[in-house]
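Contributing: when you submit paired examples, paste them exactly as shown. First protein:
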Amino acid sequence: MRLDKFLANENIGSRKEVGVLVRSGAVTVNGQAVKKADLQIDPERDTICVNGRAIQYNRYVYLLMNKPAGVLTATRDNRTKTVLDLVPETLRRKDLFPAGRLDKDTTGMLILTDDGDFAHRMLAPKSHVLKRYEAVLDLPVEAADIRRFAEGIQSGEDLFAPALLEIDPEDPHRAWVEIREGKFHQVKRMFLACGKTVTALRRLSIGALVLEETLPAGAVRVMTPEEAGLVFQKAKPQNND
């Protein structure tokens, strides 16, 4: 890999800015100052430092976002702000994309990555990765709805797989849903098939990875490798507050 590409991928600066940095003598490779930005390096073996600070190589990046309402889950849009617009410059990468999608008015957990294999595995129905949502409805949720969700729901040409539905014992207009698919407007359409309209929807977890309440809406942070692995683990029973 070229030195300037590596440094740009690690958000040290643009390729042009990195070139200036290298020529200034601020970059060392294995303890030796270098002046050529096109120098070929092995980021997994070589030690690259900028102004004395070692730059850690990350083959892929995994970001956790608490998506706010009104933002499009897309890489770019000419008319509407997208989730990538919320990612700080220091965390951006060329091939970053949202793994899956949330509707524009849906909030909560969203993972962004440049690891296509990770995203495919997470989203594939055969992986049985559960996504948990909190929904607010215009009408009270009933026991009959729980049975319909458990049996699977037909909506137009789509047959939604069986899903778990729990009603808030203190407010029947509030419920929790767990699905292992991610079809277009799925949770909303499942409730609509039961004669109810979702007025607010928030994703709480993916697999065993739970969105922490301390992450503000619109905020983004780097996930640890352990957290990325939690996506493919079975979620522990959650306390519905």
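Second protein:
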Amino acid sequence: MTTVAVLYGGISAEREVSLSSGRQVIIALREAGYVVTPIDVGPDLRVTLAALDPKPDAVFNALHGRFGEDGAIQGVLDWLGIPYTHSGVRASALAMDKAAAKAMFSAAGLPVARGAVMDVAALEHADPMPLPYVVKPVNEGSSVGVEIMRVGNNRRAQVAAGWKFGPEAMVEEYIPGRELTVAVMGDRALAVTEIASMHGFYDYDAKYVEGGSSHVIPAKVHPETYARALDMALAAHRALGCRGATRSDFRYDDTNGEPGRLVLLEVNTQPGLTPTSLLPEQAAHHGMSFPQLCAWMVENATCRA
């Protein structure tokens, strides 16, 4: 019988999300017939390494955020020769670095938002581009730290002074319209979901608090847009060299009618697996239960060794 270690928790800003994903995965994998060892990952890597001895047949990586989806733990598992779910070192590191990912998407001909990485201290003195615009950390996930600077809100200096995500920030044009997302499993884009946030935009609470957002699947968009979103998600997955399951997020500006402007924001190499997450919804849309989804990930686990 296959033994699976589930890594969850971690030390990033997304620890609580990872704990929620991990608990769901543990239950699902046991229901699917695997022997599961839960490992709550903390700051001491030696404790995690000890918990992985003897080696399991596979690791289910349910970590989110830094050190969990940026290539760090993936490198450790490659070194140990333990197959693991989701993307490898290179793809994980690229996806987590928003500037590097945008460069890869642009090289692949995919449309991205105008913007650049800048010294966040400079934000205190002047707007780097016309309002409205978005300020976000270069290396965080789950919309952690994302700020929308709008006309008349006078929060620029406050955001700069309270910034906790390093000396730099990604500044991008704000794209009006709708939030769309597409999950990819292997070589197949699943569906297009429209996300209606109750928080003004799809922030951390909208993603993980019950009632924070509503999901429409399939999204009610122009057929040309729907097909283009599927194609772009698969192209983005391949551009980064991802494997397993990913989720691509888009903004869709249909303010002047449809079909509108579709812009790729990012690829998530460790999509959430919480009760409010989007990947399980899209898998269910295709008749795949949550235990089946988790089992698919385990059966497709691999490593560089």
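If you have annotations for the second protein, write them as plain sentences, like these:
Residues 115-173 form a domain with the Dna Ligase; domain 1 fold (CATH 3.30.1490).
The chain has ten helices and twelve strands.
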